[in-house]
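Team,

Forwarding the record for the chain on the shared tracking sheet. I've put the sequence and predicted structure together so nobody has to dig through attachments.
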Amino acid sequence: MTGARRDGDDPRLEAILTALCADGGRATVQRRIVVSALLAGPRHVTAEELAATVQARHPDIATSTIYRTLEALDRQGVVQHAHLGHGPAVYHLNDTDHLHLVCESCGHVIEVPGSAYEAFARLLAEDYGFRVAPHHFAVQGRCGACAAEPGLPQRGGAVGA
């Protein structure tokens, strides 16, 4: 049947492959598999985790192919990478304008709308002439549940302290 969606295909797959082609690349079988795994996987995934997922089912796909596909998707703005802590960067689909808050105690990642940083970005631009790119990093702190737990040592101090 022409135009039928195969089981497991995400409707965003073709749009992402089209974006890769716009970057001068090709929509190869390997890239289709990598993008499908990215779409089906967890929201935030490291390149290594994605490689393990892909290679578990397709051991013939080289790790370098996975990294090059992620780099191309990042250049096209389809994915963004962010550093959520001391570990490797994570990749996520760039389908919403959001930033990351990471709990130092439990590791929970909270996505907040990009608009949450507008006043801060404006302050830095006006007072320091600095244009912040907040999508690349995460703000560390405590989530509500961990902050409310008695007995957990508090890290850091109040802003300006």
